[in-house]
Amino acid sequence: MHILLIASAVNSLTQRVFAELGEAGHTVAVELALGEEFLRDAVRRHRPEVIVAPVPTTAIPRDIRSAYPCLVVHPGPVDNRGPSSLDRAIHEGAREWGVTVWQAGAEGDAGDVWASVPCVLPPVGKSDLYRGEIGDAAVEAVLLAVRRFASGGYRPRRQEGAGRVRPRFDGSLRRIDWASDPTATVLRTLRAADSQPGVPDAFGGEEWYLHGGCGEDTLRGRPGEILATRAGAICRATVDGAVWIPELRPRRRPGGPATFKLPATLALGKRLPPVPEVPAPLRLPGHRRTWTDIRYREDGAVGFLHFSFPGGAMSTERCERLLAAYRFACSRPTRVLVLGGGRDFFSNGMHLHVIEAAADPAVESWANVTALNDLVEAVLTTTDRLVVAALGGNAAAGGAMLALAADEVWCRGGALLNPHHRLMGLYGSGYWTYTLPRRVGTGQAAHLMRRALPVTAAKALGLGLVDRVVDCAPEEFGGEVAHLAARIATSSPIQRRVEAKKAVRERDEAVKPLAAHRAEELTRMRRAFFDPGAPYHALRGAFVRKRPPRSTPEHLREAALRSAPRETAQARSPAGG
Question: What's the CATH superfamily of 171-271?
Answer without folding.
Answer: Formyl transferase, C-terminal domain (3.10.25.10)
